[in-house]
Fold this sequence. Notes:
The chain is α+β, with helices and mostly antiparallel strands. It has helices spanning about 5-10, 10-45, 50-70, 75-100, 115-125, 130-150, 160-230, 235-255, 265-275, 300-320, 355-370, and strands at about 280-285, 325-330, 335-340, 375-380, 385-390.
Amino acid sequence: MSGGEAAHSASSSDRIVRAFARFIGAGYLFYLLLLLPNIVSFAGYLWAWWTPVAVATVFGSGLWLGAAGIRGDSRLIRTVAAIAATAYLGAALTWPLAWVGQPSPDRAGFWLVLFPGLAALAAAVAWPAGLAVGYLLVATVAVQVFNQSAHTDQVNGPLLPDVLFAVVFSLLFVAAAVMALRTGRILDDTRAASHEAAAHAARATARAVERKRFAALIHDHVMATLLSAARLGTDPSVSRQAKHAIVRLDELRHPAPDVDFDAGSTVTHLRTSATASAPTVVVCADLDPAAIPVSLPAEAVRTIGAAVSEAVRNSMLHAGEKADRSVTVRIRPGQLEVEVLDNGRGFDVCAVSPHRLGVAVSIVGRLRQLPGGDAVVESQPGRGTRVLLSWRANA
């Protein structure tokens, strides 16, 4: 079974259809066993071949419907239900033609008159609600009228009350079936609409995330490289920064595989990210022996690496030429921290505009969008800057 067929078979409407098919099939089996004496007693009033054929077609199709409800799909069930409804109506309409005896003095009704509602349930499964109700009216009136003509006047009751009672009694079950089937279809439509809305929201979120990622890439690498070129001219650091920017741009077309990082590759990646903007920056690794071997998600390592690159670049631009800088990588079981320090000019964190991409988006915003990620920026004028980037598993 394909994925689409599996989803279709699991729908609410299909489950309700199968449940009704099994219920109707059980009802046909019950009536067959209950009405066997009645079938035998009335067989003498009809053509010899009619009773076996009618019993086989009416009850055989009903039992087939029950069997289809166990393993069949909804299309097969509706087809068999239509056959069962047609078989009952065909037997009801041919019954007077096959009658060859005198009116019966037996007070028991002819066996077909005792379950038109069950056949109408099959019609409700097979056809639209209006057609099923019309079927019920035609079948019930036909069997009641023919039942009156098949009995003597002494045992017949008033026709109209019998017809009304049979119609109203059967209509209750048919209406319940129609409402249940309609509810299943409504649930399926609601589910499909919800899935479509969720897919639309997911696409919109993905587009927004991609736009933010692209904006961060342009800010962190392209604009930063252009600003450095404007300030430093042909300095070798600008060349290294430009090569790093080209590598990051190439990753848009050929993303790196999402393979987890071990402790060594994590330190290497973060050192590369830090030295792309400041080749002389000191990068230290603080590894807990219990964390080796360690497996860190690629998304976490790359996100922190991008934020480290931006933090170091900001330090190079604003801390001052004489400032000392250091990057410390700490790896613990289920935890990664990177601390970027400088003893430069510093700044008032509260005075930074939330629209500044460097701190608000490329550092703090980037980490807080990472599940388990966080970023803290601490600085005061004249007292340097500390940026703490962290990720914790199951945070």
